[in-house]
Amino acid sequence: MTASEKSLLRAWGVMMALSIALAIAAEPLRPENYILAWAAFVSIVAYWKARIVLSTYLGLRDAPAARAGFSLAVAIILAMVLGGFALQLAIPLIR
What we know:
- The protein is mainly alpha-helical and 95 residues long.
- 81% of the residues lie in helices and 0% in strands.
- The protein has one domain (3-94).
- It has helices spanning 3-25, 35-57, 64-94.
- Helix 1 packs antiparallel against helix 2 and helix 2 (35-57) packs antiparallel against helix 3.
């Protein structure tokens, strides 16, 4: 097995572990009080999965500036989604 194949296999394993973490986070029996914390956890895991895809599968490990730019874009989008979710939860409390 070549180093490239080992790297891809390792990335695949980490992606599967993160997918299992997301499946656990999606458990429908979680407490409603912590829904925003669960959404933040899902956003963090999604960010790291995107970083793995960018680094390993798209080959941006060799282009750190491009990887940083794409990572920033992903982080901004996830922050906007999480902010919208938090705002949706806060509106009934404001009324």
